[in-house]
Every structure is written in structure tokens, then in C-alpha cells.
Specification:
Layout: H1 2-13, H2 18-38, H3 42-73, H4 79-83, H5 93-108, H6 116-127, E1 154-155, E2 168-169, H7 193-215, H8 230-259, H9 264-268
Antiparallel strand pairs: 1-2
């Protein structure tokens, strides 16, 4: 009210108040913008809304995907993987290919340059972790594993074998079932609890069946239920009557044929 009074007084005096001028200008400008927005067609409004939505989606995608995609496609430092082969399984397919490429390049060169880390990583990739070989004690040494990954252990006298190279068996031979690690696995005398339960259950049922057959015999055997088909019985009865009627008719015709012969038929015969 004070501003209005001041405005009226200033207008009466012929002096323009800048505060009132700015307020009125802002009010009229916003009203004109609303009029312009209302003048847009529905098709244009939908088009602008769709463009704004697409732009916002692109901005959000850029925030989340740019950094992650760059990290996923960038090469990694492979030294920790060579030091700890168990990290190989958690890598992405792209990074596993990078590690394999570096390892293959080392294997393609001289084998004498291979370090113990390279050998361990190669063994881990191709044969897996120790797995059932949890009782091994020589993981940190250069000794050969007790349980070799092939059936017939053998030895080659040359580092460059050919098709004609003679390969001799290890003497004494290594039998997998006699190694300390595999002794428990190849011990077939020991049976697990589930197998024992089913074996004892089978023996009990067999003994019960033998006792029943020996003491009761056929007295308690299941009674045989004969199911008769009424319609089949009626059909067979009709068929039997029809065959009997046909037989009687043929017999009657034969008798009539015999009785119709002339008296001289016997004389000619």
C-alpha cells in the first residue's frame, strides 16, 4: 500500500519511480512470454519435450558410462597377476586376453628366460589351481609335482624332441593311486555315508522279502483281479451264435440237396 501511495504521489508530481517501473516491466514481460508459450502448437511442444528428454538421457549416460567404459577398455598392469595367479579368474575377458598375449610371447621365446612366476601362471591357466592337491607341500619349490597331469609319466633326454625321439618311462613308474595325495581318493574300501545307507537298506529289504517268502509262501500274495469286458463278452456270444446259425444253415442246405436227388441216381452210381 505504501508503494502504491508513493507511486501515485510520484505520478502526480510527474516523477517516475524506477522500482515501480522495473516491477511493471517484469510483470508485463512474463505475461508476454506466457502468451508466446501458449501460442505454440501441440506438435511443437511434444517435439521440444522429446528433444529435452533425449538430451537429459544422453547427459546421464555420459556421466555413468564414459569413465567406466574407458577403465574397462584400458590396458592393466599385469605384474600383480603374474605374482598372484589367482587374480586371473577375476579379470574381464579383454584383460585376460592381454595377460595371455604377454604370457604367450614369453613362452614363444627361449624357455630359459622364463621365471618361476611365468611358469606358475601358465600352470594355473592351463591346469587350474591345485584343487584336490591341497596336501601338496612343494608349491614354493622347483621340484616336480607329485601328481603329474598325464597318465603315464615319462622322461625325454633332449630339450628339442622330434618325431623319432625315443621316450622312456620313469623308473620306478609313478602310479597315481599310490601317491600320498591320491591314496584317500583311490581307497575304494571306504564308502561314504549315503552309499552305506542305501546298501544297508537294500540288504534289509532283501532279508525281509526272503523271510516273508519262507514263512508265509503264497498265502499273502496279492490277489489277481480279473477285469471282464461286458461288451467284449456280448460280442463274442453274438459271433458264436452267428457261426452256429451259419453252420446249421449249411447243414440244412446239404440235407435238402441230398434229398432232392432222383431215384435213378443211386442206380447210375
Amino acid at each position: 500500500m505504501n508503494s502504491m501511495i508513493v507511486g501515485r504521489s510520484t505520478l502526480r508530481c510527474g516523477i517516475i519511480n524506477p522500482r515501480i517501473f522495473k516491477f511493471t516491466h517484469l510483470r508485463y514481460s512474463t505475461s508476454t512470454e506466457n502468451v508466446k508459450k501458449e501460442e505454440k502448437s501441440p506438435e511443437q511442444a511434444k517435439k521440444e519435450a522429446a528433444e529435452l528428454a533425449m538430451q537429459s538421457i544422453k547427459d546421464l549416460g555420459g556421466l555413468f558410462s564414459s569413465s567406466s567404459s574407458d577403465d574397462a577398455t584400458q590396458p592393466i598392469e599385469t605384474k600383480p597377476v603374474f605374482q598372484n595367479p589367482k587374480l586371473f579368474g577375476s579379470l574381464s575377458l579383454l584383460h585376460q586376453g592381454q595377460v595371455l598375449k604377454e604370457l604367450q610371447a614369453k613362452f614363444d621365446s627361449k624357455w630359459t628366460k622364463l621365471t618361476l612366476e611365468d611358469k606358475r601362471l601358465g600352470y594355473y591357466i592351463y591346469f587350474g589351481d591345485w584343487g584336490v592337491r591341497e596336501d601338496f607341500k612343494n608349491w614354493n619349490t622347483n621340484e616336480a609335482p607329485y601328481d603329474l597331469p598325464f597318465h603315464i609319466p615319462s622322461k625325454v633326454k633332449t630339450t628339442k624332441p622330434t618325431n623319432t625321439t625315443k621316450i622312456n618311462k620313469i623308473n620306478p613308474p609313478v602310479i597315481l593311486s599310490e601317491t600320498p595325495v591320491r591314496t584317500k581318493q583311490f581307497d575304494f574300501k571306504r564308502v561314504d555315508g549315503v552309499s552305506k545307507f542305501f546298501i544297508y537298506l537294500t540288504i534289509f529289504i532283501s532279508m525281509l522279502a526272503i523271510y516273508r517268502d519262507k514263512n508265509y509262501g503264497e498265502e499273502f500274495r496279492p490277489a489277481e483281479v480279473i477285469i471282464e469286458d461286458e461288451y467284449e463278452n456280448q460280442r463274442q456270444a453274438r459271433q458264436a451264435r452267428q457261426e452256429q446259425l451259419e453252420h446249421e444253415l449249411l447243414k440244412k442246405l446239404d440235407d435238402e440237396k441230398k434229398s432232392s436227388r432222383k431215384w435213378y441216381y443211386l442206380w447210375l452210381k
